[in-house]
Every structure is written in structure tokens, then in C-alpha cells.
Amino acid sequence: MAFGLQVLTGLLMLIYYVPTTDQAYSSTLFIIQNVPLGSLLETVHLYGAYAMIMLAFLHLFRGYFVSAQKAPRQMMWVVGMLMGLVTLGFGLTGYLLPWTVVSKSATDVSIGMLGFMPAQIGALLTFLIAGGGSSSAELTRFFDLHIVVLPAALLSLLALKLYMFEAHGASEPVSGIKSKKDIPWFPTVYLYFAMIGSVFVAFILVASSLFPLNLPAEYSAAAAAGYTPQPEWYFLWVYQLLKFASFEGSGIYYALGAVTVLLAGFVVLPFIDRGTNRNPFSRPLYITVGLIMIGELLAMTVWGYLTPGQVIPDAQAVELIGVVALVVAGLSALAFRAHGRGLAGGRTTIAVRAISLPFTNWGVTAVFAVPLIIGSVCLANLVSILSSGTFSSVMIGANFIVVLGSFYAMAWMVRSLMVVYRRSQP
Q: Among 17, 19, 14, which residue's Cα sits nearest to residue 136?
């Protein structure tokens, strides 16, 4: 859904966007200021990109914790990792296209990292990504990558992964609970997906309406001189690592080497972790390592945002990384111990809650549409009132109460769709 949203908004923006250094910014500004709903269009495209990258990270770690890479789905994992890298490529290339001082400076930082790779590899990658070295060639190359090469790569990998999915089927649930009957893809699963996708698009539209894009200043050498460049949030953790004092100068090779090894380890994980056990509760080390990685990723991202352009002393770096690792490892150990005690007395009955497919209960699903429509209309009214600048406390209060009431009614109906499975576990 996120990719489809990006394709739709991107094609509409292509009607007006001009990929040259003297018109990229002005054409983007024209879309925002003069095209009907142009500001919403640009903002939805930006937030949709953020959502797509965030969902890729969530999907990666979800797959990691449930060991989705186990046989016979090893190559599905590898293809999925390549799709994740292509998604990051979308973020990198698309960020430059408005040609703002923020996007150009951040992109130059990202491209500059390639210069620290081995000479032949770094020069080749720099040429493939940024062109001959001029700003005009860089923008043209990023534009071509963003609208032609990367979409073709992603769709090709998606087709390959879907083929593998058809061959191997969905992986068995870790809980051991299996459906007693086959669930048809159409219309049941399709309508379920349509419902979830509609909620996703609604959140993007609401966020884009309440927090529209504020285009930074146009790029120029003078403007860039007074700006501290930082990459976007999805690359910020790497950039923060490079700011450690030990990695300044020639030490940057070790930092980039460590990041490369980590990335390669994720790609070849199915061939490292070759056991058959997929139960997270019986794999404490595997789960703890994953939790530590998430903790470090979040800590480094927030830390990088708070310390733009600052060199981080080694002692401070070791302290933060060590504290995060120890805290996460300690909490993980406590969680596994508590789980072990709960099962120590013999067989324990565990209640596993799950949402049943809503279209297996047509009555509740039909009634669900009523508060959904009413709440959507009132939420749209709230956005319109708050963005108009002319506030009416009565109208705001009335719409807000109806929205809350609709959400409560929908939550109550979703609860009625909840299915509780009970199973015994030794």
C-alpha cells in the first residue's frame, strides 16, 4: 500500500516537476503553492516514504524474532533483505530531488561516505550513484534511479519473492496454532487487506493535513556553508557511529567495515542460523541480541538528532552503548526467567488472543461501517476547521465528541471479533 501510494503521488508530481538544478526547487515550490492540493500531494509522498521505510524495518525485525529465514525459505529472506536495501535507496534518491539546502547537504554527506571505501569500489559506486561529479549530473542520476531503476528492481524482486511464496507457502505460526480450515484469498483476505490498507492511507492523509510539508530554503553554496548537514533519520544511526572520536580520519574504515559486516550478517543469516527451532522463548540469546540491536539503533538515532555535527568522545560513546546493551540484556533475562517460572509447575494453559477475519462475521462488519463513516466525516471536519485558522469551539467540541464515540464503538465491535485460543504448554 505504501509503495502504491508513492507511485500514485509520484506520477502526479511528475506532471510539474523539472529535474534540473535551476528548476527543481522552483517546480517543487510551484506544486506546493499553485497546484490544487499540491501541498497535500508533496506531504503525502514524503510521509508515505517514511512509512514505507519504517514498515520495512518493522518487517525485518518481526521476521528476525519469529525466525522466518528457516528452511525452506532461506532465499525468501535474502530477497527480502535486497528489497529493504532498495527501499532505503528510494529514500536516499528521492530526498535530493526538491534540491533544498537540507536535502542536498544530507545527500552529499551520504555520498561522501562512499569515498572511504576501497578506492576501486568507492569510485565505481560514486559514479553509478552520483554521475560524473557535477551537481547537474548528480540530480539527473538520482532522478533516473528514483523513477526508473529502483522501481524496476523492487518490482522484479517482489515478483521473485511472490513466486517463492507460492512455492513454499506461508510459514507455520510459532505458537503452533493452525487454522482448521482454508481461508480463501478472495474475497475474505482481500477485503481484510483492503480494510487495513484503508486505515493506513487514512492515517497518512490525516497526518499530512495536520502537519504539511514546510519546504526548506533552496540549495546554494552560501546557504550550505551555514548549515550543519545530517542525513535523514533512517541513516542517522550510521552517521552517529562515524562521529565517534576513534573513527575520525582513517578510523572511519573500521566503522564502515563494522556496518558492512553487520549488514552482510543479516543477509546471510539463514545460512548462519541453520537450526529448526523457531520458538522465541527457547532462544534467549538470539532474541536478546535482536533486542539489543533495536535498542542501539533507537539510541544512536536519537543521539545523532540531538548532537548535530559534534564529535563524540570515546568514553561517552562506550558508556552509552554499554548502558543500552546492559539494560536491554537485563530486561530480557528477567523476562525469560519470569516465563520459565510460569511454566515450571507443569502444563500451563495459555490464552492466545487474535483478531478473526472480520468478513467471516458479516453482521458486525456491516454495522462497523456506520461509525467508520461517521467518524471519518467528523475527523475530516476537525482537520478542515483546525487548518482554516477560524476556530469554533462548539464545532470543534461536537466533532471531537463524535469522533471519540465512533472510535469507541469501532473498538467495541473489534473486540467482538476477538478469538481466544487456549492451548496447553509444558
A: 19
Instruction: Give the count of alpha carbons within 13 A of 64, CB side only.
Output: 22
- Asked whether the predicted pLDDT for residue 346 surpasses 60, the reply is no
Q: Which long-range contacts (CB under 8 A, 24 or more apart) does 384-391 make?
A: 386/210, 387/209, 387/210
Yes or no: say if 187 and 73 are a contact pair by the CB < 8 Å rule: no
Beta bridge mates, 351: 422
The range of the structural domain enclosing residue 94 comes to 2-169+183-234+249-271
AA letter at 152: A
Q: Are strands 418-425 and 348-355 parallel, antiparallel or unpaired?
A: antiparallel
How far is 160 from 154, CA to CA, in rounded Å? Answer: 10
| One domain for residues 384 and 288 | no
Residues 6+ apart with CB under 8 A from 400: 378, 382
Q: Report how far apart, in Å, the C-alpha atoms of 420 and of each of 359, 412, 415, 416, 423 are.
A: 17, 16, 11, 11, 10
Are 58 and 75 in the same domain?
Answer: yes
* Domain end among 312, 345, 378: 345
CB 332 within 8 A of CB 396: no
Residue 310 inside a domain? The answer is yes
Q: Which has the closest alpha carbon to 283: 91, 65, 98, 111?
A: 65
Q: What is the pLDDT of residues 213-253, one digit of tens each?
A: 999 999 998 888 888 888 889 989 988 998 899 988 778 88
Indicate the pLDDT class of residue 377, thresholds 50, 70 and 90: confident
Q: Do 293 and 321 contact (CB within 8 A), yes or no? A: no
Most confident of 172-176, 181-185, 324-328: 324-328
Spatial contact of 107 and 126, defined as CB atoms under 8 Å apart: no
pLDDT tens digits, 82-91: 999 999 999 9
Give the three-class secondary structure for 173. coil
The structure's pTM equals 0.82
Is the model more confident about 422 or about 398? 398
Backbone angles phi, psi at 220, to 5 degrees: -155, 160
